[in-house]
Amino acid sequence: MLSLQQNITIEDVFQAAPTPLNTEQKRFLRSVAAFASDAHTGQLRKSGEPYIIHSLHAARTLAEIGMDEITIAAGLLHDVPEDTPITLDEISKKFGPEVSYLVDGITKLSKIRLQGSQQEYFLENLRKMFLAMAKDIRVVIIKLADRLHNMRTLDSLPPEKAERIARETFEVYVPIANRLGIGEIKAELEDLCFQYLEPVKYQEVKKLEETYLHEGEQYLGRVKTQLSNLLKAEAIQVKEIEARTKNLYRLYKKLEGHDMDIKRVYDLLAIRIIVPTISSCYEALGIIHREYRPMVGRIKDYISLPKPNGYQSLHTTIFGPEGRILEVQIRTEQMNDEAEYGIAAHWMYTEKQKGSWRDFFIRKKVAPETSPKTSPKVRESLTWINQLREWQKDIGRDDTEFMEGLKIEFFKNHIFAFTPKGDIIELPEDATPIDFAYAIHTNVGHRANGAKVDGKMVPIDYQIQNAQVVEILTTKEMKKPNKDWLRFVKTTHAKQSIRREHRADI
Ligand code: MN
Question: H helices of 292-375, where?
Answer without folding.
Answer: 333-341, 343-350, 357-361
